[in-house]
Automatic annotation (TrEMBL):
This is Tetratricopeptide repeat protein. It comes from the Bacteria. It comes from Lampropedia aestuarii.
Amino acid sequence: MHTLFASGQVEAIATPESVQGIDGLLANDVQMLTQIGFIAAGRGDTRQSSAIFAGLQALRPLRAFAWVGEATAWLNAGKPSEAVRCLGRFEGPPGQERDMVQAFLGLAMQFDGQGQASLRVLKAVAFQPVDPATEGMLLARQILGGHTLEDLNTPTPGAAGTFAKTP
């Protein structure tokens, strides 16, 4: 929306739909691309979703959504090692976005048969001394099945690399 003043100057009135990032895209544009990418990812269409998410990764390299979206496509296509590779390229600083990527990385590693590595990644995210917990921390705790750190550090015979609770 724009307002024309008597002086002839035009001032842009910022609305959520009109806020542009430094790349010139409107927030709604990024949201629409993300939704289209997730539709393709839901079908396991890695060609389409990877192209969309690669563009979003270039535009928003420190945000989790584009990395998680591409990884979701690889998981839905039955290629967890590609999801692990994708998430491993994320270079964001510690905090909410990194926590979310790390939680999905732990999940992808579990699907890829890397149980011990998955457990290490998920424990590192889930049990950080941060209050309040980030969404990534909460997701990691859910993936770990609600176990406490003490539960996870107690060896269970025959359960290496699994998160199942013992009776």
